[in-house]
Structure to design on (844 residues):
C-alpha cells in the first residue's frame, strides 16, 4: 500500500486487493518506523482509474463472448488482474500518534515512499482511546474482536442514538442502560413502546441479571401522584404547555393555589376543583380551569389518596446497587404522556437540586413526542449540571434540535439512507460530513458508527453484540407464520 | 516442423489446439527464460515507453511498380454463400524495461477462429526475453533454428528492432502452425507474403504456402500500410470504377523485385469507407482468390474494409498499458528485477529553478 495523494484532511492510498481487506470505518496506520504515525480512517474504497482501463474492459468483455484459451506460461494474467483490480482507499486523517499519545490537528505527514501502511488492530486503538474509567461495557465487535467502551463515558454526558427504523438503536440503548445499571447506576427510561419492560427476563424467560434492579412504573396504575407532590410549577407547566391554557387563567390558577397553601388546606385534585368552582374569578377562566382539572383527573395519574401515591424519590433510592426505573407509557394517550413527563422531569430536577437522589441517567426514546421544545436546552445544560444525564434515541434526527447535537458528547449513528437525514446529521456531527455520508449510508443493520468522547474522538464502526435479555424491540407482524408451518398447513 | 496433427475441419467449434504442449512453443519459452537468467539480480531496470510492434512489415515491400509493365485489373467481389472457417493470426511485441545493456521484451500471439458467427480464441504468451548485444546473436539464431530448422547463422537485427524481429519469427511460426492445423479454411495474416528477408526466408514462406495448399487453405495477408507506389502514388490510393467491394490486381505492374512475393498482390477495398489495403493472396489461381474473397465476405464482418476476425486477433495480441504494468510487476516479484522510474535528468536538475 502506498500513499497516492493528500487533499485537505483526506489521504488516498493505492493498494492491491490482496494487500489488506479494508472496510469502511476501519483504521489504517501509516508509519515510518520512528514511533510516529498517522491514524487514517477508511471512508471509501474505489477502483483505480488505471490508464487504458476502458480499452482493457472492452477487450475483456469481448473475450467473454469468445471461447478463449490462454496459454500463459508465466501466469502474467494473474498479475494483470491484480493491476486491473487495484483499489484506491480514501481515508481521513483522524489524528497523528506519537507512541500512545494522540495529537489532533497535527500537520505531520508520513512519507509517500518510505511509510509502511497496515491495518490498525483493536489493541492499538484501545491504547489510543484514552477515556477515563475502568467499568467496561462490551458493546460488540470491531474487526471481529470484542470492543469495550467505558461506562464512565456516559457519566455527566449527553448521548444521542439515531438511525433509521430497524437498524438496532433500541438494542444498543438497552445494552448501555443495562450495563450502567449493572455497574450500580440509576436509570430512568421513558418507555414509549413498552419494549423495555421485559429486561428483567433472559431469552429463556428466566430472571435476568437485572431482575432485582428493575421497577416498572405504569402511570395511572402503579404510578400515581398527588397534586401536592406535583406542586404548582408542574401544574402550571402542564396547564401552559400541555393544555395550552392562556396566561390569564394560569395566573388565576397560581393565585388560587397560593390561597389554598396559605390556608394550609390539604390539596387533592377534587378539593382543587371544588376550590376553583367557589373562587371569585371570571366565569370563562373558571370554565377553562375546571375543564383542565377534570382532564387531569381523568388521566388517573393524579390521586386523592396519599397512600396510593408513588414517591419517585423512594423508587429511585429503593434499590442500592443500581436501579432501572421503566416508565411504561405504552398505553397512555399523548396528553397524559406529556403530563407524566412534565411531572418526572420537574421532580427529578428538584430531587437532584436538593441532593435527595444521586445523579441519574435518563433514556428517552422518540423524546420529541413528549418533551416540549423549551425543555431541550434545559435538559442538556441546567439539568445536566444537577446530575441528569440524558440518552436520546430517535429515528428522526431532525426531531432533536441541531444545537443539541452540537452539545452531544457521544453519538451512536446507525444506518441512514435518506439524503435529508444524512445532510442533517452531517451538519450537526462533530466530524466531517464526507465521512458521515460515506460510512453511515452503507452501515449494515446492527452496525453502529460511534463518535465522540466515548471513543476518545476516534470514530469507530462497531458491530453491535446480541443480548441475553428479552429486548422486545421487534415489531409485531401480521404475517409471522414461518414458511415451513404454512406449507405443513397447506398440505 | 511439427508433426501433423489431426486436421481441424469446419465443424471444429470451439477451437481445440494442442499448441500449449507444442515443443516449439516450450523451446521458445525456455529461450526467453534462459535469457532472463543471465541478468544479475543487482541490475536495475527502468520502464520503457514503447509502442506495440505489430505494424505491417514495411521494409520488405517490393520497391518499384510501374504501369509500363501492364495495367491493374479490377475484380468486383460478391458474397458467396459457402460456409468456411476464418482463421486469423497476429502477434505483438513490446519493450517492457531496459537497463544499461539491453531490453526486456514481451511477445504475444493470438489465433482467432470464426465459424458460423461463433468465435474461438487462443492467446499465446506473453513470453519475456532479455536481449542485449551479447546474447542477441545467440537468441535470434536459436529461434530461427528451432522454428524453421535454419542452420546458417545470420547477423541479428539492431537491438532497437529486436523485439519486432523476434515477434516476426513467432508470427511466421504461428502461421505455419495454423496452416498445418486447419483445412478448407481462409487464413488471415497481418502483413504481406513477401519472402527473402531475414525473418521471412524464402524457404519458410514457401513452406507455409505449400502446407496451406496441401490442406486446401487459402491465405490472405492484409497490409494496412505499404510502400508500394505506382508513379509515386501509394497503391492503396488507386481506385477502381467497379462498385465496392472490389480488388485490383497489380501483378502486371511489377517491374523490379528486391524480394520475392508469394501469391498475388491486390489492392482491396471491401467496404464503402475509403480505406484500401494491400492484400496478398496465395496459393491457387486468381479465380480461386476472387471466389475466396466472396466467401470471406459471407463469413466475416468487414470493419472499415478490414476483416473483423483479423482485427480481433490484432486487438487481443496487442499489449496495453495495464499489460505492461502487470508484466513489470511480474518481473519484479517473480524474477526479482527491480524496476525504477527513470529520472528525467533535465527535470531533476532544473525543475526546482
Amino acid at each position: 500500500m502506498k500513499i497516492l495523494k493528500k487533499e485537505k484532511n483526506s489521504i488516498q492510498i493505492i493498494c492491491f486487493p490482496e494487500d489488506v481487506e479494508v472496510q469502511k470505518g476501519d483504521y489504517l496506520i501509516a508509519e515510518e518506523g520512528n514511533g510516529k504515525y498517522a491514524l487514517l480512517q477508511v471512508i471509501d474504497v474505489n477502483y483505480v482509474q488505471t490508464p487504458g482501463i476502458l480499452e482493457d474492459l472492452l477487450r475483456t468483455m469481448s473475450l467473454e463472448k469468445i471461447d478463449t484459451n490462454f496459454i500463459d506460461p508465466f501466469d502474467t494474467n494473474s498479475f494483470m488482474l491484480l493491476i486491473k483490480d487495484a483499489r484506491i482507499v480514501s481515508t481521513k486523517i483522524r489524528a497523528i500518534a506519537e507512541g500512545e499519545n494522540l495529537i489532533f490537528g497535527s500537520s505531520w505527514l508520513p512519507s509517500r515512499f518510505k511509510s509502511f501502511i497496515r491495518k490498525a488492530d483493536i489493541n492499538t486503538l484501545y491504547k489510543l482511546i484514552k477515556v477515563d474509567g475502568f467499568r467496561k461495557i462490551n458493546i460488540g465487535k470491531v474487526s471481529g474482536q470484542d470492543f469495550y467502551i467505558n461506562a464512565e463515558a456516559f457519566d455527566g454526558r449527553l448521548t444521542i442514538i439515531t438511525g433509521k427504523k430497524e437498524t438496532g438503536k433500541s438494542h444498543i440503548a438497552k445494552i448501555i442502560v443495562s450495563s450502567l445499571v449493572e455497574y450500580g447506576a440509576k436509570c430512568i427510561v421513558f418507555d414509549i413502546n413498552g419494549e423495555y419492560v421485559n429486561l428483567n427476563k433472559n431469552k429463556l424467560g428466566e430472571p435476568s441479571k437485572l431482575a432485582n434492579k428493575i421497577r416498572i412504573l405504569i402511570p395511572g396504575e402503579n404510578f400515581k401522584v398527588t397534586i401536592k407532590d406535583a406542586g404548582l410549577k408542574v401544574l402550571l407547566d402542564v396547564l401552559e404547555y400541555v393544555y395550552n391554557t392562556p396566561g390569564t387563567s394560569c395566573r388565576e390558577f397560581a393565585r388560587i393555589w397560593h390561597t389554598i397553601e396559605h390556608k394550609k388546606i390539604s390539596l387533592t385534585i377534587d378539593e382543587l376543583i371544588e376550590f376553583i368552582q367557589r373562587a371569585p374569578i371570571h366565569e370563562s377562566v373558571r370554565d377553562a380551569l375546571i375543564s383542565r382539572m377534570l382532564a387531569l383527573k381523568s388521566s388517573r395519574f393524579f390521586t386523592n389518596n396519599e397512600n396510593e401515591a408513588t414517591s419517585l424519590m423512594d423508587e429511585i433510592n429503593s434499590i442500592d446497587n443500581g436501579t432501572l426505573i421503566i416508565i411504561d407509557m405504552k398505553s397512555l394517550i399523548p396528553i397524559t404522556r406529556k403530563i407524566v413527563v412534565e411531572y418526572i422531569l420537574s421532580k427529578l430536577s428538584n430531587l437532584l437540586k436538593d441532593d435527595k437522589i444521586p445523579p441519574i441517567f435518563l433514556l428517552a426514546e422518540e423524546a420529541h413526542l413528549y418533551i416540549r421544545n423549551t425543555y431541550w436546552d434545559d435538559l442538556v445544560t441546567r439539568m445536566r449540571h444537577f446530575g441528569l444525564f440524558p440518552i436520546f434515541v430517535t429515528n428522526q434526527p431532525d426531531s432533536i434540535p441541531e444545537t443539541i447535537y452540537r452539545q452531544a458528547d457521544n453519538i451512536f449513528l446507525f444506518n441512514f439512507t435518506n439524503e435529508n437525514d444524512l445532510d442533517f446529521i452531517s451538519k450537526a456531527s462533530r466530524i466531517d460530513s464526507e465521512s458521515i455520508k460515506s460510512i453511515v449510508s452503507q452501515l449494515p443493520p446492527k452496525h453502529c458508527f460511534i463518535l465522540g468522547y466515548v471513543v476518545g474522538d476516534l470514530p469507530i464502526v462497531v458491530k453491535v453484540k446480541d443480548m441475553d435479555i428479552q429486548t422486545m424491540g421487534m415489531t409485531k407482524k401480521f404475517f409471522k407464520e414461518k414458511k415451513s408451518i404454512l406449507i405443513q398447513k397447506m398440505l | 516442423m511439427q508433426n501433423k496433427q489431426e486436421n481441424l475441419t469446419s465443424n471444429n467449434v470451439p477451437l481445440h489446439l494442442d499448441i500449449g504442449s507444442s515443443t516449439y512453443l516450450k523451446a521458445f519459452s525456455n529461450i526467453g527464460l534462459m535469457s532472463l537468467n543471465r541478468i544479475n539480480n543487482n541490475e536495475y531496470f527502468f520502464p520503457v515507453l514503447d509502442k506495440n510492434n505489430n505494424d505491417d512489415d514495411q521494409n520488405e515491400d517490393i520497391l518499384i511498380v510501374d504501369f509500363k509493365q501492364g495495367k491493374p485489373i479490377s475484380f468486383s467481389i460478391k458474397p458467396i454463400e459457402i460456409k468456411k472457417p476464418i482463421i486469423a493470426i497476429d502477434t505483438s511485441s513490446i519493450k517492457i524495461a531496459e537497463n544499461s545493456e539491453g531490453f526486456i521484451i514481451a511477445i504475444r500471439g493470438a489465433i482467432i477462429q470464426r465459424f458460423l458467427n461463433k468465435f474461438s480464441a487462443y492467446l499465446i504468451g506473453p513470453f519475456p526475453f532479455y536481449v542485449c548485444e551479447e546474447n542477441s546473436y545467440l537468441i535470434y539464431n536459436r529461434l530461427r533454428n528451432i522454428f524453421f530448422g535454419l542452420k546458417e547463422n545470420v547477423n541479428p537485427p539492431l537491438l532497437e528492432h529486436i523485439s519486432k524481429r523476434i515477434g516476426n519469427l513467432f508470427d511466421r511460426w504461428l502461421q505455419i502452425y495454423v496452416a498445418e492445423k486447419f483445412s478448407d479454411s481462409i487464413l488471415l495474416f497481418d502483413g504481406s507474403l513477401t519472402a527473402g528477408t531475414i525473418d521471412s526466408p524464402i524457404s519458410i514462406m514457401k513452406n507455409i504456402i505449400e502446407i496451406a495448399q496441401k490442406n486446401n487453405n487459402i491465405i490472405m495477408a492484409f497490409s494496412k500500410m505499404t510502400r508500394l507506389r505506382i508513379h509515386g502514388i501509394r497503391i492503396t490510393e488507386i481506385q477502381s470504377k467497379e462498385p465496392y467491394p472490389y480488388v485490383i490486381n497489380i501483378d502486371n505492374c511489377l517491374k523490379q523485385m528486391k524480394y520475392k512475393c508469394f501469391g498475388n498482390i491486390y489492392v482491396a477495398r471491401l467496404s464503402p469507407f475509403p480505406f484500401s489495403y494491400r492484400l496478398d493472396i496465395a496459393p491457387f489461381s486468381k479465380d480461386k482468390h476472387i471466389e475466396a474473397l466472396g466467401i470471406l465476405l459471407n463469413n466475416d464482418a468487414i470493419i472499415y474494409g478490414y476483416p473483423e476476425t483479423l482485427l480481433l486477433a490484432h486487438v487481443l495480441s496487442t499489449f496495453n498499458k495495464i499489460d505492461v504494468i502487470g508484466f513489470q510487476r511480474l518481473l519484479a516479484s517473480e524474477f526479482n528485477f527491480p524496476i525504477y522510474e527513470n529520472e528525467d535528468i533535465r527535470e531533476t536538475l532544473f525543475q526546482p529553478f
Summary: Chain B touches chain A at residues 14-15, 17, 19-20, 25, 29, 112, 118-128, 312, 315-316, 320-323, 325-327, 329-330, 333-334 (CB under 8 Å). The radius of gyration of chain B is 21 Å. DSSP finds eight helices and 18 strands in chain B.
